[in-house]
Structures are given as structure tokens and as C-alpha cells.
Amino acid sequence: MIAEHHDPYASRVGGASELVGRADPVIWGHGPGPLDRSQRARYHRDGYVVVRNLLSPTEVTMLLHEAERRAAAIDPAAPDRDDVVLEPRSRAVRSLFRVHRDQGAFAELAADERLAGAARQLLGDDVYVHQSRINFKPAFEGAPFSWHSDFETWHVEDGMPRMRALSASLLLTENTEHNGPLLVVPGSHMWYVRCAGLTPQDHYKVSLREQHFGSPDPAAITRLSEGVGVASATGPAGTVVFFDCNLLHASAGNVTPFPRHNIFLCYNAVSNRLVEPFGGLPPRPDFLAERSVETLPSARA
Amino acid sequence: MIAEHHDPYASRVGGASELVGRADPVIWGHGPGPLDRSQRARYHRDGYVVVRNLLSPTEVTMLLHEAERRAAAIDPAAPDRDDVVLEPRSRAVRSLFRVHRDQGAFAELAADERLAGAARQLLGDDVYVHQSRINFKPAFEGAPFSWHSDFETWHVEDGMPRMRALSASLLLTENTEHNGPLLVVPGSHMWYVRCAGLTPQDHYKVSLREQHFGSPDPAAITRLSEGVGVASATGPAGTVVFFDCNLLHASAGNVTPFPRHNIFLCYNAVSNRLVEPFGGLPPRPDFLAERSVETLPSARA
């Protein structure tokens, strides 16, 4: 239990759920970059900021088609590939991982100054892609994601030391209030929810479909949302949502006739590269957590 | 197959899905009542109208407590009661049926002039309660409802002749964009979606949990929502949503920390009382479809 005392973000160490204050800055630098002062202020206060139409309709249409092309190339009858997650029932493609590693459109997107530059600006350091994925939430049947902080998992299962990472979510289709947009608890990034329980081996194999460990206590989520409620990050295709690695987020299922497809690029500061997982188990595979820090092609010279 | 030719609303007769025009008025009378001209115009055009704060906070708090008291009195370990539907996974109470028959608060609510009077006004006739239920959608785990027209089921499985019925949904808790509010396709009440397939015996025993037959074809829902999208019926507790029996509606699951509990009172015109089910199977039980027409205690003298 010594680790619990030295690690401010110890979690799943067998104790009860607990709410503790964040021990890291939210914004790590004040250099120039694509986000203006009011956008940075909103990100600091709420833990996220929505930048509408960051990509042009032409760009986002190309990326949507490329994403659909890759999903269509998956054979649902073939043996499971680790980096492809299917919907539990319909076996439609739910997530494609590590798209930043393929040569082509997604690698270019990951290095795009509008995204990577904003990450560098907020994290005050060079950045690399810790994880990337396309999340497909098909019309009528897209499944929900339950509440979680990315950082809790990245810390416990991947070995990310500090809260110096963020996600950029690019909306490939319009995200409305009703087709399962990203839901957040504004301000929850200032609190760390230590999770109860312990982590089983190879937890990631089930957690990508349904989360059981590393799920914050419902009472903690309720408490953090009191008086604040829950907010959604909506916008037309081409909008990008930047959100802190410790922001509580979730999304409802999609019952509408309108698909909701998003790309997630998770940037980490190079100075915050992964070490041994804090949960003490072997690290998750590379497609979930990049262990070789390669600054992005277009990193500032 | 003769019935198919005589019944404008034949459905599940073994053919393909089909979209046909509504063969009945939406508003059946122009007598006085609680709804003003603009509310009736909206109901006519969109198939629903939201009346905020129709009940006072005191009234709705009392009804919420009564609903919670009744749900808490259900023993989840006891053998299934037909009129109680539990969540598939957690066995939390999802629906309590036929609450208008119990003496007390819900019977009074069903006869309340603000609700029953509006139903009489729109349907141009005395009314009775065809079906009533409390739908509980608990925080974090409330399940979704898939798209359907009430009338399709009421016609095929219960024997309701014409589209001369509506539902009044009373919001017992605030319904926000995010906790699984009623979603509708505005204007879809003007079209009838003939459903494909046939109905198995005792279909209601599974359909209350998960609908498989009498589900409109996704292509029909997509077509009706083109250019219109999907709208939500939200508001504070005490709000009432009146919606036509043939309006396509659904709701997403509730992943938020805020429960969404609503009462549904479905009013039918007495002249539209049930006959033999148009699907040719035995009628569903009384708790789902009232067969003894009793005009409400407070019906106009």
C-alpha cells in the first residue's frame, strides 16, 4: 500500500471510492498557438472547449469517407482483431484504433497544426499521440459509453504519470443533442475520482466494450454534477472538441436515424511519456497506449 | 388477406413495409377546452405540443413521491407480475401499468380537466383511459425505447379502429436533452408505417421489454425525418406533452446522474372503443388495453 501514499492518483488499490483534488495544472504553458484567450479560459474552467468548423466541409467529407472505407473493409466474420472493436450485438464496427500510425489522411490529421498545435499550446510541451481511434456510433443502434476519466485508465493501466494530456475529438458527422454526443460534467477535471476495486488481468479486452473497473462511483459523478448538470459537445461536422484527460465524460446510445462518427486523437506531452503502469500489471498493448514517443512530423522545428 | 383491402391501417400482414397517408383527422372537434389556438395549431402540424408547468410543483412532487413509493413496494425477487416491467439487467422497475385504475392520486390525475379536458377538446368526444403507465428511467442505467407509433400496436394488437386517441405524458422529473427525453419525428403522425412481418402469440410479453414486431422499418423512419430531424420534448417537472397516437417516437437511454420519470395517460375517444384486434390474434390483457369504456369521473356533465 506504499504506492498509494506516493502516487497522488492511486486508484483501484482495493479501497473505497474517493474524490481528491487535482494535483496538476490544467494549462501548462502560455505560448502562442491556435486557441485564443477566451477559448483557453473556457478550457481551463470547464475542462473542455468546442471549436466549431475547425476543419472545412471538404476536409471532413474526405475523412468521413476514408473512415467509412476502412470500417467497410473489416470482415465481421473474421477472427477478432485487437485494434477493432465491434458492437456487442450487431457486430457493426464500433472503434478502429491507432489510425494515426497508418500512412495517409489520419496521420496527417494527427500532425495538423490546428489540432497538434492546440495540444502543444495547452500542454506547454511537444506532444505525441498516445492513442487514436475512430468511434462509429451508427444510426438506431449505436451503443452508449459510460462515465469515465481517461486519465484514470491511462495512469493505472498505461503508466501515464501526470495530467498533462488531452483529447481532440473531430466530429465527422453532425453531433446533435440526440444522436449520442459527448456528454461531460463541466469542471469535473479539477477532481480525481479514485476508483474502488482492483483491475483484473487483460482488462482492456472487455473494457473497450463495457467498462466495469476504473468506473467512477455513481455517487461521485452525482456529486460533481450537482448544480452544474451535464453538458453536451455538439456541432456540425468539422467541429473539434478539446478536452482534458481527467474530464468526466460519457455518451448516450444513438437511437436517431443520424449516425454519429467521431475521430479521437489523444495527445500527451513528451515530458509525460509513459512509465510502468501504476496499477502494477503489465502495460496494455501499443494500439491502446503508444510507448514509443515520436513527436509528430510537423512538430515545431 | 381481405382485411388488408378494407382496413386502411392493415399492418404485419406478411407484406413489406410501406408508408401510406393518414386516413383520419388529427383534430376531431373545435369545441372549447384548455388548449389555446396556437397550441392546437402546433399539435396539428407537428403531432405534439409541450405545455410547460401544467401542474404545480406541489402537485408534481406529490405524484413523484407516490410513484416512487409504488415502485419501492415491488419485490424484484417475486415472480413477475404482468403489469410490472423490470429493467432487463438490473431488475429495477421500468414500468407500472394501469395506474389510473387504482383509487387515489393517479385516478384523479387521469380525470383532471387539464389533461382529460385537453384530450376531449382535441378528439371531439368524451374520452376514457385506454392505457396508463409510469415509466421510470433511472439515472445511469435507464434503457432506451425504440421508434414506434402507438397506434400501430393499438390497432393490430388491441383493436382500436381509428386514429382518434392521444397520449398525455406528465414529466415527474425534469426532462433535459440528456436524460432520455421523449424524441419525436415532427409531422410523422401524417403517415402510417405498415410494418413487415407477422405477430407472434403473446407478443406483448417481450415487446414491453424489447420491441421486435410492429417496429417501423428504419428506412421509413429515416425518410420521415429527412429535412425535419428529430425533436425532443423537454421541460421542468409538471410539464405535459400531448402527442398524437400515430406520432413516431422513441427515447435514448439515460446515462446521466438525473433520473427521468414520466407518467403516460393514453386517452381514446369513446366512439373509437376497441373491437376485435385487426391482427386476428386474441386481444392483449386489460392492463395494456382497457376494453370496458368508462368515461372519466369528471367527464363533462
Give the topology, please.
The structure is a homodimer of 301-residue chains.
Chain A: H1 2-6, E1 18-21, H2 37-46, E2 48-51, H3 57-72, E3 84-86, E4 93-97, H4 105-111, H5 113-123, E5 127-137, E6 145-148, H6 150-158, E7 165-171, E8 182-184, E9 191-194, H7 204-207, H8 218-225, E10 231-233, E11 240-244, E12 249-251, E13 260-269
Antiparallel strand pairs in A: 1-9, 2-11, 3-4, 4-5, 5-13, 6-12, 7-11, 7-13, 8-10, 8-12
Question: What would your notes on this structure say?
Answer:
By secondary structure, chain A is an alpha+beta fold. Chain A has eight helices and 13 strands. In chain A, the strands form three sheets. In chain A, strands 2-11-7-13-5-4-3 form a seven-stranded antiparallel β-sheet. In chain A, strands 6-12-8-10 form a four-stranded antiparallel β-sheet, with no helix packed on it. In chain A, a hairpin with a 6-residue loop joins strand 3 and strand 4. The longest helix of chain A is centred in the first third of the chain and has 16 residues. Chains A and B meet through strand 6 and helix 8 of A and strand 6 and helix 8 of B.
List its traits.
homodimer; 301 residues; 8 helices
Count of extended strands of chain A? 13
Shape of chain A: globular
Level-1 CATH class name of chain A: Mainly Beta
- Through-space gap between termini of chain A: 44 Å
User: Helix content range of the residues of chain A, please?
Assistant: 10-25%
Q: For the residues shown, what is the average pLDDT of chain A?
A: 91
Largest sheet of chain A: 7 strands, antiparallel
Oligomer: homodimer
Number of domains of chain A: 1
Q: Which spans of chain A have pLDDT < 50 for at least 5 consecutive residues?
A: none
Structural class of chain A: alpha+beta
Q: State the largest interface.
A: A-B, 27 and 27 residues
The CATH topology of chain A comes to: Jelly Rolls
Strand order of the largest sheet of chain A: 2-11-7-13-5-4-3
What is the strand content of chain A?
Answer: 15-25%
CATH architecture of chain A: Sandwich
CATH superfamily caption of chain A: q2cbj1_9rhob like domain
Number of helices of chain A: 8
Radius of gyration of chain A: 18 Å
Q: How would you spell out the order of helices and strands of chain A?
A: HEHEHEEHHEEHEEEHHEEEE
